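Sorry to interrupt, but I need a hand with the structure work. Could you write out one complete protein record for me, on any chain you like? Just paste the record in under my message, thanks.

. . .
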Amino acid sequence: QVQLVESGGGLVQAGGSLRLSCAASGRTYYMGWFRQAPGMEREFVAGISWTGGSTSYTDSVKGRFTISRDNAKNTVYLQMNILKSEDTAVYYCAARSSPLGSRSRDEYRYWGQGTQVTVSS
């Protein structure tokens, strides 16, 4: 069983930055960040392989967000720059029990409780 705990959310002005962290209690393989805005479905934001050598991003965050991981600390990060009001959502960390990448939330076995990110315009 893997437990995930997110931190780093908050209120920021448009154009600002935030760094989210996700601490895992056990061995993780492919990791992802998802987000869910009010009234919307939970969507894939970014994913990273175990080695960190392979990353994936949804088009709307490319060039602004960076996913990374520190396996020694069992932690995954999401650096978010040039934030926009449309980035406002609850952000969730998720882990697969497989080393293969995926953008489908149904293929992630473990989930954190979420952290709120609010971007004011």
